[in-house]
Specification:
Helices cover 17% and strands 30% of the residues. It is α+β, with helices and mostly antiparallel strands and 209 residues long. It has 2 domains: 1-30; 33-208, Distorted Sandwich (Glucose Permease (Domain IIA)). InterPro entries: Cell_wall_metabolism_enzyme (IPR050570), Dup_hybrid_motif (IPR011055), M23ase_b-sheet_dom (IPR016047).
């Protein structure tokens, strides 16, 4: 009898925890200074694997609200990637689209994609910076040679920018994105929270688009 009561108690605790977690996700306050943009990824299911500082990831102040996003490929894709390399990873080569209307401020396109298990350098990541309406968007870790825009070019919302790669300091192919504005008077960069289509994402959240 005691075992049954204990089991029921455990089930109730787990159920309450799941309910609270789901409720808190649906009722998270969105920061008042959040920048709302369109999803930078399409045609699939995606997961935010990092959001803000976590361990030794996103430790720079400018990355306070940074997100790392992967395309979901299931457990089969994970094992294929470990065995066969980058081309078998679900995220690798996935198109990335501009989440806002703006002007391309800088492009880095020539660094190689690193293999899993090799520690790349943060400075050797292919990236695109887009200046939008009062803020800047930095998109990082693109596949070598995949960037489809040029510095100075005007980009539209939904225009292809590049493809997900594994350049720079990257444990696996993913899209890194963070947003900031510049205080001209002090020449400092101020990180800004991000929402996609009005939704505020945390580590572990997913979306389909």
């Amino acid at each position: 009898m005691k075992k049954i009561i204990s089991l029921i108690f455990i089930v109730l605790i787990i159920g309450a925890g799941i309910y609270y977690w789901d409720y808190s996700k649906k009722n998270r306050p969105i920061p008042s200074n959040a920048v709302n943009m369109e999803y930078p990824l399409k045609d699939g299911s995606f997961t935010v694997i990092q959001s803000g500082k976590f361990g030794d990831v996103h430790t720079a102040p400018i990355e306070q609200y940074a997100m790392d996003i992967i395309k979901d490929g299931g457990i089969k894709s994970w094992f294929q990637f470990r065995k066969a390399g980058l081309e078998s990873n679900a995220s690798f080569g996935t198109p990335v689209y501009s989440p806002c209307f703006g002007n391309v401020k800088s492009v880095t396109n020539d660094f190689p994609d690193i293999l899993i298990g090799i520690e790349g350098k943060p400075s050797e990541a292919n990236r695109v910076q887009i200046g939008c309406n009062g803020f800047n968007v930095l998109l990082v870790h693109f596949k070598k040679g995949s960037i489809a825009v040029k510095e100075g070019e005007t980009v539209q919302i939904g225009q292809k920018v590049a493809e997900i790669g594994n350049s720079g300091r990257s444990a696996e192919p993913h899209l890194h994105i963070h947003v900031f504005k510049t205080n001209i008077a002090t020449d400092t960069k101020i990180p800004l929270p991000i929402t996609f289509n009005g939704k505020y994402f945390f580590r572990g959240d997913g979306f389909e688009n």
